[in-house]
């Protein structure tokens, strides 16, 4: 592109931010690197690892969430309202990862631009996809978070109100709750979709960047996801106000409805669930003490044993759900605080948030991949259904039979060899000539 240059850049053309930094600081890379804060260095170092680590995590999380869906839809598992909510939780986590993988591969593995953060690409279609996927990721990730809240509410109703809870926490109400939550997430993500757009800028070619020819007259177009609030200098005063307010509304919505408020509810419900578990344990111990002091029949003993087993099963289920809720809470609450600081602290995005963006995405992927590990480690029923579904028990039994048959055949062969050896020795002893010595013993 040939045109008049002002300060090294074509007139009336906005350079990409990474090319501006390159153009103004090309001679001071070493000194500026020494002045980087520890947070900036952490963001740069983790950004180099974010692509392969997150992609490997997705390759683990996608099939495990598919396994969760298949197991939770089996007849023996799908009748419970709790398992129905866990099914939709797995669906939301799966869609979130599927939406993230293409962007992860293009922007972090292929890396079509010299500097990855902020994300630029010479291909406009990829940025259009990234713009749409950004809203989709918020929808399904927020849906998963709110499903966890409904899961805690249903479990509290079930164990806190034994007579009324099972009638309220039904599978039908669980499905209706998911539908309402999905519609709400779609509605409240509209401001985020309105402030995002495909932006473009100009920078030197990638080849010129790698050959250090930063003073070249050759320029390429790069695309990125832009935010309306960042372009106030290019707007009229009448246009700035509504867009700036829309950006503020979007920030508050993401911080409150999608992070802080559900995390607050999860914290309260987690405390209530722990309290109800302890209350149930105390009630069981009291019943055991009463039964020990009284003369009870064998029928009452059997009933007590059945009640104890049922209580153990309910406590295991509640413990599993608590593990899920705590995992979500540990990941989501710090993110909510960081999003809230975007609106409360000036320049927080530039100074802090952008350097933690990759790490925040990685922790979200970890959270979405953990449920399978929790299920298999804490739920005997899930393990049994998983093994039956994927024929693990049959392979294990076949392997055991094969090993047993091989071992039996080996033992039989050894016994036959021993018998043959003993027979040969006997024949040898019987056929030996007698010695002429006086002791009469064979030689």
Automatic annotation (TrEMBL):
<feature type="transmembrane region" description="Helical">
    <location>
        <begin position="85"/>
        <end position="108"/>
    </location>
</feature>
<dbReference type="InterPro" id="IPR000276">
    <property type="entry name" value="GPCR_Rhodpsn"/>
</dbReference>
<feature type="transmembrane region" description="Helical">
    <location>
        <begin position="128"/>
        <end position="154"/>
    </location>
</feature>
<keyword id="KW-0812">Transmembrane</keyword>
<dbReference type="InterPro" id="IPR019427">
    <property type="entry name" value="7TM_GPCR_serpentine_rcpt_Srw"/>
</dbReference>
<dbReference type="GO" id="GO:0005886">
    <property type="term" value="C:plasma membrane"/>
</dbReference>
<feature type="transmembrane region" description="Helical">
    <location>
        <begin position="252"/>
        <end position="275"/>
    </location>
</feature>
<protein>
    <recommendedName>
        <fullName>G-protein coupled receptors family 1 profile domain-containing protein</fullName>
    </recommendedName>
</protein>
<feature type="transmembrane region" description="Helical">
    <location>
        <begin position="174"/>
        <end position="195"/>
    </location>
</feature>
<dbReference type="GO" id="GO:0008528">
    <property type="term" value="F:G protein-coupled peptide receptor activity"/>
</dbReference>
<dbReference type="Pfam" id="PF10324">
    <property type="entry name" value="7TM_GPCR_Srw"/>
</dbReference>
<dbReference type="InterPro" id="IPR017452">
    <property type="entry name" value="GPCR_Rhodpsn_7TM"/>
</dbReference>
<feature type="domain" description="G-protein coupled receptors family 1 profile">
    <location>
        <begin position="64"/>
        <end position="375"/>
    </location>
</feature>
<dbReference type="InterPro" id="IPR053219">
    <property type="entry name" value="GPCR_Dmsr-1"/>
</dbReference>
<feature type="transmembrane region" description="Helical">
    <location>
        <begin position="320"/>
        <end position="345"/>
    </location>
</feature>
<feature type="transmembrane region" description="Helical">
    <location>
        <begin position="53"/>
        <end position="73"/>
    </location>
</feature>
<keyword id="KW-0472">Membrane</keyword>
<keyword id="KW-1133">Transmembrane helix</keyword>
């Amino acid at each position: 592109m040939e045109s008049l240059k002002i300060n090294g850049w074509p007139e009336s053309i906005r350079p990409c931010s990474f090319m501006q930094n390159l153009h103004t600081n090309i001679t001071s890379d070493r000194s500026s690197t020494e002045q980087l804060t520890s947070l900036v260095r952490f963001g740069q170092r983790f950004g180099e690892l974010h692509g392969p680590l997150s992609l490997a995590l997705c390759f683990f999380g996608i099939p495990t969430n598919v396994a969760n869906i298949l197991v939770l839809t089996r007849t023996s598992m799908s009748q419970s309202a709790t398992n129905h909510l866990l099914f939709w939780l797995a669906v939301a986590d799966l869609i979130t990862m599927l939406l993230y993988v293409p962007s992860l591969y293009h922007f972090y593995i292929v890396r079509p631009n010299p500097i990855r953060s902020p994300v630029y690409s010479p291909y406009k279609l990829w940025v259009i996809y990234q713009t749409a996927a950004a809203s989709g990721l918020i929808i399904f990730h927020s849906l998963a978070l709110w499903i966890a809240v409904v899961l805690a509410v249903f479990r509290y109703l079930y164990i806190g109100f034994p007579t009324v809870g099972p009638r309220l926490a039904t599978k039908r109400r669980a499905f209706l709750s998911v539908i309402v939550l999905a519609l709400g997430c779609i509605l409240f993500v509209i401001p985020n979709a309105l402030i995002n757009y495909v932006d473009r800028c100009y920078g030197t070619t990638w080849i010129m960047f790698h050959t250090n020819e930063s003073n070249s007259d050759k320029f390429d177009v790069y695309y990125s996801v832009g935010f309306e609030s960042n372009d106030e200098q290019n707007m009229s005063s009448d246009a700035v106000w509504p867009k700036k307010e829309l950006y503020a509304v979007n920030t508050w919505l993401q911080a409150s409805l999608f992070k802080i408020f559900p995390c607050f509810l999860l914290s309260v419900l987690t405390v209530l669930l722990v309290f109800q578990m302890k209350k149930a344990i105390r009630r069981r111990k009291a019943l055991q003490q009463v039964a020990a002091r009284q003369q009870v029949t064998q029928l009452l003993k059997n009933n007590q044993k059945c009640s104890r087993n049922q209580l153990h099963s309910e406590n295991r289920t509640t413990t599993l759900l608590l593990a899920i809720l705590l995992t979500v809470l540990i990941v989501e609450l710090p993110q909510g605080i960081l999003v809230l600081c975007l609106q409360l602290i000036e320049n927080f995005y530039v100074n802090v948030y952008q350097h933690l963006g990759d790490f925040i995405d990685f922790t979200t992927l970890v959270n979405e991949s953990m449920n399978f590990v929790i299920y298999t480690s804490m739920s005997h029923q899930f393990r049994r259904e998983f093994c039956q579904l994927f024929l693990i028990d049959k392979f294990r039994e076949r392997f055991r039979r094969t090993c047993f048959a091989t071992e039996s055949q080996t033992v039989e062969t050894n016994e036959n060899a021993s018998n043959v050896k003993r027979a040969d020795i006997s024949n040898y002893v019987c056929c030996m000539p007698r010695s002429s010595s006086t002791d009469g013993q064979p030689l």
